[in-house]
Write a structure and sequence with these properties.
single chain, alpha/beta, TIM Barrel, Dihydrodipicolinate synthase family protein, lyase
């Protein structure tokens, strides 16, 4: 398991009858593989994990594992309120064929330093799967501090962090303090260029769901030092990337997916599809950017460099 490259946090596709839309999920998954992603993450915020049943998670993981055929690892996100439920999810992920876990701090309870570290250690001790911690204090109210990471260095299978503090400097802080002990993946689309240039090893991306080729191209160009080419894509991409930092990122990104033929707008309640002026404004921006979508360089040719 190499925590580097582009890991899309895939959306969960639903039918009009509110069941899993597996054919549409497969279409998007294939587009990600064709673009050259390094792994896929299921059941994250974009995946609407909080409204998925265990049976639906099982279906998605097993289907993805079968379709990727070992080309890239399938990672399952764990976002649970109880430690024992997180441990149970970790065990199920292994049974279903996942090759790694993304792990949030406890949900719905603001754990302190000791509780947060104990939670992570307990889940990690229950599995041999490699784990990427998700550090997002903006949305989930618990920061995984450098002091916490100090204690977690002793846990061999805690290998990486999805860096979503929205503080670009944290990449440098982590590298200065821990070297290569933890792989760092940018978790905020609007900071992709900056964090990759600062030394992040990859990214967990959102708009990649609609624009897989542009996202992988951006990553590879930055890592190859082709900054001018990368910046041209990044500047075009930015209005779209900003959809990732909105409270309705699921609805907005699904709207973008629908416009490029890689998804639909269907979400699961209590979320509702956006309507009226809100939808028109987001749709107008998406269409404006599609009208000037850039031609990409042959980014796949530089794969060996990254």
């Amino acid at each position: 398991m190499q925590w580097k490259g582009v890991f899309p946090a895939l959306t969960t596709k639903f039918t009009a009858a509110d069941t899993l839309d597996i054919p549409l999920f497969e279409k998007n998954l294939q587009a990600q593989l064709d673009a050259g992603v390094s792994g896929i993450i299921l059941g994250g915020t974009l995946g609407e994990a909080s409204v998925l049943t265990v049976e639906e998670k099982e279906t998605l993981v097993k289907f993805a594992v079968e379709r990727v055929e070992g080309r890239v690892p399938v990672v399952l996100n764990i976002a649970e309120g109880a430690t024992r439920e997180a441990v149970k999810q970790a065990a199920l992920a292994k049974q279903w064929g996942a090759k790694g876990l993304m792990l949030l701090p406890p949900m719905r309870y603001k754990s302190d330093h000791r509780e947060t570290v104990t939670y992570f250690k307990t889940v990690a001790a229950s599995t041999d799967l490699p784990i990427m911690l998700y550090n997002n204090p903006v949305d989930y109210k618990i920061e995984i501090t450098l002091a916490m990471f100090d204690e977690l260095t002793a846990v061999d299978n805690i290998c990486a962090v999805k860096e979503s503090t929205r503080d670009v400097t944290n990449v440098t802080r982590m590298l200065n303090r821990f070297g290569e002990r933890f792989r760092i993946l940018c978790g905020v689309d609007t900071l992709t260029f900056e964090e990759l240039a600062a030394g992040a090893h990859g990214l967990v991306a959102g708009l990649v769901c609609a624009f897989p080729a542009e996202t992988v191209a951006l990553y590879r160009l930055v890592k190859a030092g082709r900054y001018e080419e990368a910046l041209a894509i990044y500047r075009w991409f930015m209005p779209l990337l900003e959809l990732d930092i909105h409270p309705k990122l699921v609805q907005y990104i699904k709207l973008a997916e629908s416009q490029v033929g890689l998804g639909s707008e269907a979400v699961r309640a209590p979320r509702l599809t956006i309507v009226g002026q809100e939808r028109e404004e987001v749709l107008s921006m998406i269409q404006q950017q599609l009208a000037v979508r850039p031609a990409l360089p042959d980014y796949k040719a530089i794969a060996a460099l990254v």
